[in-house]
Design goal:
With about 150 residues, this protein is an alpha+beta fold. It has a single domain, classed as Thiol Ester Dehydrase, Chain A (Roll). It is about 20% helix and about 35% strand. It contains 4 helices and 5 strands; from the N terminus they run βααααββββ. A 5-stranded antiparallel beta sheet has the order 1-3-4-5-2. A hairpin with a 4-residue loop joins strand 3 and strand 4. The protein is elongated. The protein starts with 13 loop residues before the first strand and ends with a strand.
């Protein structure tokens, strides 16, 4: 069983620079055909300071952590039993190419179901820009299959 004393544990924060090339690649990979996501002139014409960060790209940016396995290592979770259970986003303001975003992850909850056969770890991450303005809140639920 995952030790519930880790609820509230703050994982190491980290910075990510948002790059235009990665945003364009993500837009292409996800079939985004709105030029706002690939053409800086179109983005500026739509009122953006640069290419906007597509909503689900925050998941990719969160993987830029110096140690993406930090939570798994802290909790002693064997990756062979992991499932990605849920991903959610709450947006507060736009992020754009050129922004420097700080990710601040925390273990928000740990619980189990089916007599411990399934354990759930909820990670919540706040994302702030270079002006320390709240940009987004990310919620990820990891499922651990036991047995």
């Amino acid at each position: 069983m995952i030790d519930k004393r880790h609820i509230g544990h703050i994982l190491p924060p980290f910075q990510v620079e948002v790059e235009k090339g990665r945003l364009r690649f993500f837009a292409k990979a996800t079939g985004q055909d709105d030029p706002v996501y690939t053409d800086e002139a179109a983005a500026r014409a739509a009122g953006h300071s640069s290419l906007p960060v597509p909503p689900t790209f925050f998941f990719c940016l969160e993987m830029e952590s110096p140690n993406p396995a930090a939570m798994r290592e802290l909790l002693g979770i064997d990756y062979r039993g992991l499932l990605h259970g849920e991903q959610g986003f709450t947006f507060h303001r736009m992020a754009h190419a050129g922004d420097s975003l700080q990710f601040r992850p925390q273990i928000a909850d740990i619980y189990d179901k089916k007599g411990g056969a399934l354990e759930f770890v909820v990670r919540k991450t706040t994302v702030h820009n270079q002006r320390d303005e709240l940009v987004a809140e990310l919620r990820c639920v990891t499922v651990v299959r036991n047995g």
